[in-house]
Specification:
With 295 residues, the protein is α+β, with helices and mostly antiparallel strands. Helix content is 44%, strand content 19%. The chain has helices at residues 116-128, 138-153, 158-180, 187-200, 208-214, 219-230, 234-250, 257-263, 269-280, 284-291, and strands at residues 4-7, 20-28, 39-40, 43-52, 54-58, 61-65, 70-73, 78-80, 89-97, 99-100, 106-107, 133-134. Helix 1 packs parallel to helix 5, helix 2 (138-153) runs antiparallel to helix 3 and helix 8 (257-263) packs across helix 9. It starts with a strand and ends with a helix.
């Protein structure tokens, strides 16, 4: 294998790719003390094990990686070895700057050709996933090799090709994350996780595609599963959650109807009032009046 390390600001190959912080491949044939201390980065770091066995701590959890495995470290997560050194073996990696939205989600930057909805969906999957190690994802290793080849050979169109390959790497990883979770086999558990996620961020204007991404399903299968499990379409199921949360808030007299409407994801007070009356038979103000304690 070709060993190399390209670093932003030091390697001319990366001048046109400010989002690539580092790209490398290494065959480690001897143990060097303090060669892998724990560190935290603002970039997303992706490591692919070519051969050997590596024991790493990712986000303060121990993992053991074997050939074909991928480690995914998000911005702000700690990464390193408890032993403090890199074991004998070979690996390749890439560090990429990721845009962070005000809502806390991460998305690929302007360099990406992914659509806005695709970027948001991938960002949600990356942030919400609990699997920091992906097993036997050889495709990720091949993509890293292709990126290396494009950067060193610089044939016509290599800039576009490199960015497309990074998009492909994110797509490959997020698809594997959804496959590993096996949501269709244990949908009740996935359904509970979905509801928890929705309730934690009800003000967000959720789409069916985004909800499906949370549980790692395509929209068609997701629609079928939600309908079968709850009796509602995904959107009607979401509306019911919004109303149930609004009912809790209406019992708190210090919160205005407008704030309740916005906090639970309705477009306006009128939209909230219309939907609430349709489902409960009362306007929000009528419901509040009838359910406040009387002196």
């Amino acid at each position: 294998m070709n060993q190399f390390v390209l670093q932003q600001g030091h390697s001319p190959e990366l001048e046109l790719f400010p989002h690539i912080v580092e790209l490398g491949a290494k065959k480690n044939s001897s143990i060097q003390l303090n060669s892998l201390p724990e560190s935290v980065s603002d970039s997303i770091r992706i490591y692919y094990v070519i051969d050997g066995k590596f024991e790493w701590n990712i986000h303060h959890q121990p993992y053991m990686l074997y050939p074909g495995d991928v480690a995914l470290i998000l911005p702000g997560q700690a990464f390193g070895s408890e032993k403090g050194f890199l074991e004998i073996g070979s690996l390749s990696w890439i560090h990429i700057t990721i845009a962070k939205l005000e809502s806390g989600e991460v998305v690929p930057g302007k360099w990406s050709s992914l659509s806005e909805s695709e970027s948001l969906t991938i960002g949600k999957i990356l942030v919400l996933n609990n699997s920091l190690v992906l097993s036997k994802l050889n495709e990720a290793g091949r993509i890293l090799q292709y990126i290396q080849s494009e950067l060193f050979n610089q044939h016509i169109g290599y800039c576009t090709r490199v960015n497309h390959l990074i998009d492909e790497l994110f797509i490959t990883i997020t698809r594997q994350l959804t496959r590993q979770s096996n949501p269709a086999r244990d949908f009740p558990k996935a359904f509970m996780q979905l509801e928890q996620t929705l309730r934690q961020n009800l003000s967000h204007q959720w789409t069916v595609e985004e909800m499906a991404a949370v549980v790692g399903m395509g929209t068609t299968l997701f629609n079928e599963k939600v309908k079968s499990y709850s009796g509602f379409s995904p959107i009607n199921y979401l509306i019911n959650i919004r109303i149930s949360e609004a009912i809790k808030l209406l019992k708190k007299v210090d919160i205005s109807l407008t704030d309740i409407a916005l906090d639970t994801g309705f477009y306006s007070s009128q939209h909230f009032s219309t939907t609430f009356k349709k489902l409960t038979g009362y306007t929000p103000s009528e419901f509040r009046k009838n359910n406040l304690p009387h002196n």
